Amino acid sequence: MTANKIGIAKNLYALWVRAASWVQSPFLLAIRLYWGWQFWQAGWGKVGNIPKVAAYFGTLGIPALLLNAYFISWLEVIGGILLALGLFSRVTSLLLTGDMVVAFF
Prior knowledge:
Elements: H1 2-47, H2 50-59, H3 65-85, H4 89-104
Helix pairs in contact: 1-3, 2-3, 3-4
């Protein structure tokens, strides 16, 4: 009787793992598309106003204002596109996470 319950539990667990794996891929795609779009929008807004972004970075005490304004703007534009497409997503996510950590502090 106990062996039968263990077998049922194993089958239910296997079913749960298959269902979770099936849902994981579309969910991660939706997250990638959403965050890629958000980064692209933020970056594109900055690319159009580099002097304004550099001036804002100056009020925050960030060094190399113009260089950082260009770097962050294009990082968000290109990184957002790469993230949405799923290309180089680990490296891109690491760079964008660094961008957001600095923005947070």
